[in-house]
From TrEMBL:
It comes from the Bacteria. This is YerC/YecD family TrpR-related protein. Coiled coil: none annotated. It holds the Pfam family Trp_repressor. PANTHER family: LMO1763 PROTEIN (PTHR40080), TRPR-LIKE PROTEIN YERC_YECD (PTHR40080:SF1). SUPFAM superfamilies: TrpR-like. InterPro entries: Trp_repress, Trp_repressor/repl_initiator, TrpR-like_sf, YecD_YerC.
């Protein structure tokens, strides 16, 4: 029996996330909801996706982010065979760096 991520509880979480209006509100919410390690892991995977789409090599990505090749490979698999969520957000996101 496979578990579905589409549950009432996940819907409630996403509604809460969509209610956030500023980056500061995101920090406030996610620092309460996630552990530091969870938040850093999620942000690392997003950075890996960004760098893969920029054409960086696994070695460059690993050196820049500290991500393992297993993590890079999982993100790459999502980019190639997933639901295009990374690409959707990468096209929309605006970065302050």
């Amino acid at each position: 029996m496979s578990k579905s991520v589409r549950t009432k509880e996940v819907d409630h979480l996403f509604a809460a996330i969509l209610s956030l209006e500023t980056k500061e509100e995101c920090y406030t919410f996610f620092e309460d909801v996630c552990t530091i390690n969870e938040l850093l892991s999620i942000s690392q995977r997003f950075e890996v996706a960004k760098m893969l789409r920029e054409g960086k090599t696994y070695l460059e990505i690993s050196e820049d982010t500290g991500a393992s090749t297993a993590t890079i490979s999982r993100v790459n698999r999502s980019l190639n065979y997933g639901n295009d969520g990374y690409d959707m957000v990468l096209k929309r996101a605006k970065y302050d760096d």
